[in-house]
Design brief:
- By secondary structure, this protein is mostly helical.
- The relative contact order is 0.10.
- The protein has two domains: 117 residues, no CATH class; 148 residues, no CATH class.
């Protein structure tokens, strides 16, 4: 690995990200409909025929078939290759950000030809990979169906604990404590808010998602993510709620304009930024508030 240049690993992370994006397309389609992610295997949603592996290749399969299914020749939505390409790009960005931000390597002529040798950079690259790519299904599913896939939330806990084995990143004990404290703390806040408001104030999916971030980032990173996500939520929800209220007053469908936006997407957007720049932003905040 010490001899392999960065540009090669960027291609590997892109390919792996595209494969993950293909699986996420399955999650986004099947999970809200209550369909198993494993059985039945890949099949055409129109004629139900099995799709061969060669046509399931991310991005390449869609281009090979020219955007039409091989069995019934019906159009295949361009959303699928776009989602795969986006996840591939996010995968490459995860490694790039880990090397440039966490590794502190300046972007120069030799940036892409130098090998990646530091274990801490690899730990950060894998954590960023999960954080960036996990944002896609969280936003897609939670915004439409108000639920967060367990493969992302619970999977984040498992991924965080496994990545913590790599030296230089979040230590195993920090990862375990981060998952317990972040998830348990948010559950307690949600329970108290539910008792006070006498209605459900926090979904359990959000609790598991933040627990996963705690495993990946530690307690401090998870708390910073929660704070920034709450601020983003307020910034978005205040104007959105006013618009929804005006539409309801005008007699439009109240179910579509209830002014409710799930909290999961705000957590998913805030997490990768706080993983990379949380400490820097915290120091800047302290400097602005206390002048130190």
């Amino acid at each position: 690995m010490e001899e392999i240049p960065l540009w090669y690993w960027l291609l590997v992370f892109f390919a792996f990200g595209a494969c993950v994006g293909s699986f996420y397309n399955v999650i986004v389609y099947r999970m809200p409909r209550g369909i198993s992610l494993i059985n039945p295997p890949s099949h055409c949603p129109l004629c139900k025929k099995h799709i061969p592996i060669r046509y399931n290749l991310p991005i390449v399969g869609w281009l090979w078939l020219r955007g039409k299914s091989a069995c019934c020749h019906q159009p295949i939505s361009v959303i699928y290759p776009i989602g795969e390409a986006l996840c591939g790009l996010l995968g490459a960005i995860a490694l790039f950000a880990a090397v440039a931000v966490v590794g502190g390597v300046p972007v120069s002529a030799s940036f892409f030809t130098a090998p990646v040798t530091e274990p801490a950079v690899w730990a950060s690259a894998f954590a960023m990979f999960w954080l960036l790519l996990g944002a896609y299904p969280v936003c897609a599913v939670d915004c439409k169906y108000k639920l967060i896939p367990d493969s992302i939330s619970v999977g984040g806990i498992v991924a965080g604990l496994l990545i913590s084995i790599i030296p230089g990143g979040v230590a195993p004990l920090q990862s375990l404590v981060g998952a317990v404290v972040a998830g348990g703390g948010l559950y307690l806040v949600g329970w108290c808010a539910t008792k006070l408001l006498k209605k459900e104030a926090m979904g359990f999916g959000d609790v598991k998602l933040l627990a996963g971030y705690g495993a990946l980032m530690g307690v401090t990173g998870a708390v910073e993510t929660l704070i920034v996500a709450a601020i983003l939520g307020i910034v978005v929800m205040v104007p959105y709620g006013k618009i929804a209220a005006r539409r309801n007053a005008a007699g439009q469908d109240a179910a579509e304009t209830s002014g409710q936006i799930p909290f999961g997407p705000f957590l998913a957007v805030a997490a990768p930024f706080m993983y990379l720049w949380g400490e820097t932003l915290f120091k800047l905040y302290i400097k602005l508030v206390f002048g130190e």
